[in-house]
2-methoxy-6-polyprenyl-1,4-benzoquinol methylase, mitochondrial (Mustela putorius furo), 277 residues
Amino acid sequence: MATHRSYALWSYCGLRWSRVMRCSPLPGFRSSWPRGPLGVRHLSQEKQATETHFGFETVSEEEKGDKGDIAFRFLNYVEAQHKGKLKRQLRAQQNLSWEEIARKYQNEEDPLGGSRVVVCDINKEMLKVGKQKARAQGHKAGLAWVLGDAEELPFDDDKFDVYTIAFGIRNVTHINQALQEAHRVLKPGGRFLCLEFSQVNNPLVSRLYDLYSFQVIPVLGEVIAGDWKSYQYLVESIRQFPSQEEFKEMIQDAGFEKVTYESLTSGIVAIHSGFKL
């Protein structure tokens, strides 16, 4: 999944996002952009207040929007692969003593093999939640956390090996623009992966899913979280999102090639994949 000294770009997901995405203070930021204390340019303050959809409602873009388990899984995967490789190398050296083997582990400075993950969200509070979860799971290295905008990524072209977003692009105000930015920051050969709610393709499941979505989910949101509107928006935004084929075409229009998708649970969710070639 990751090559030596590779960088992966992740977004942190929540219920209500605005323009979601990821950024990090890594080498190669655009030098022409105004920078903050971390070397990352500030979000644009000059966007005009135009209207967009918010579920079934029409609102201004400023109103649309108010965490990174996948990033943690990536780090765990890379570390496990690196440790597995080291163990295989050690097994091949049957003449080593246990003391020598222990010293090899102790001298290992970077269990991630140079790989790094950048987690980005437009919401500071979501980033705080992500950092807390990272600390709780013992992730101290290999992660960068930056406030950023999916539609205006502060990276040079061709920076990342992998770009993945889960349950977030549905809430981006201008999806086409976010896809174009994803294509721009990926290296040639880099891969785009998106996990998102999609269109149910089984009529029976569709009727049951609609009943559950509109009659149960908002009620649960009100009872458990005291927030009917957020969960109502969740249901509406899912219905507003393009179908699997329509979203595939959007990804292709952004410049990606070999675009495919896999529907899961009768299409309730889908994984789209594309490559920058």
In short: The mean pLDDT is 78.
